Amino acid sequence: MTVPTSPRKxxxxxxxxxxxxxxxxxxxxxxILGTPGLIAGYLGDPVTILAMWFFGGIVAGLSTLVLAEMxxxxxxxxxxxxxxxxxxxxxxxxxxxxxxxxxxxxxxxASKAVLIATYIITLTGTGSVRIxxxxxxxxxxxxxxxxxxxxxxxxxxxxxxxxLIVLTIAAVGLAGGNASGLGTEALVSGEVAGLLGxxxxxxxxxxxxxxWEDAAKMSEEVMDPGRAxxxxxxxxxxxxxxxxxxxxxxxxxxxxxxxxxxxxxxxxDATAAVFGDAAGTxxxxxxxLILISSANVNFLGLxxxxxGLAKNGLAPRAYTEVDERGTPRNALYFISxxxxxxxxxxxxxxLIRFMMTVAITVDTMVLLGYFKLRxxxxxxxxxxxxxxxxxxxxxxxxxxxxxLIILVWTQPMLALGAGSMLAALLVAxxxxxxxxxxxx
Length: 440
Description:
Shape: globular
Number of strands: 0
Largest sheet: none
CATH superfamily: Amino acid/polyamine transporter I
Distance between the termini: 30 Å
Oligomer: single chain
CATH class: Mainly Alpha
Radius of gyration: 21 Å
Number of domains: 1
Helix content: over 70%
CATH architecture: Up-down Bundle
């Protein structure tokens, strides 16, 4: 007689430093490498550029505080979909989870794979972006089949390297630059000036900060989540803001906003402007290392979102299967295949604008769940409570709503496309949850 075995569960092995490595690892990557030139073109004025980066960090920090209360009270794998499901029900949980899988994190993982391939070609002078991007995705898939301990060790090491590289790039610009960009008059006018310019800049900046909440997806694997998650979420967001400000100050010390606006990799061009082309090549290598660390977290976090969805009947049950090394293997198959498919596309700027319109919309709904949970589950154990309640969380949500209004007003066609995607997910969520209810 065969004794049935219980399904394997995720293991609580992650410490605060692991969570911080995940946060810094995923946030610092394609955004800070690919968007400073775009933002300089949108805004032009150096003070405005730095102010917008600071504003993005404040919004991320406030958001982490709201999310930290929900994450500590509901330490389940899956991140934002968990809080949307508890607050608004399974249909909105479906929308939050699948929008992240298919749009925000899927697009971001693909864009990183493409940038890695592009930088490899820049260094070697040969190769196909598509083939190399697919090879990158395959490499991450193989790495993550080795288990959580291997992938988090890789993340910790590459994040340490990344932080050292970022600090070095910032120091080089500050030490060698002549502050040419810090006193420059405003550059932009016309179609990207005014409200549209701010909207476009904020989409790029929010993309650069996106991932501040990623460690929450791994709540079931964090030791003492009630204490650890708030430290991870807030500490990670604030560390990233400081590093981003240092990076942008160093860029502006070496280049004018006009020069930045024409650059696809500002970090390399700023270094080359001070120390020559050889130094610029070194920064391309450094940027490649930064991206390798950042892309790793997409493959680390997204299978846990699929796992959490499946555990609640909102995705195929096969995604709940965890192998002997602690990896949701079938979910990893799906995520890797989806990112590989997206990596065959391009249009970096349009992709981030689309994904951030979807992401900000979903995040507004998730953060509103904070007040819903406070009202519907007042006795829920909350190891961490949002400071400044109710004023500070209300201010955070008002900022999100104001940003959404500006995005829709300035980019109606993009908003229509994002709204159509979310409407399709909503319909799919209604159908899925009704079928689930009928089968009980």
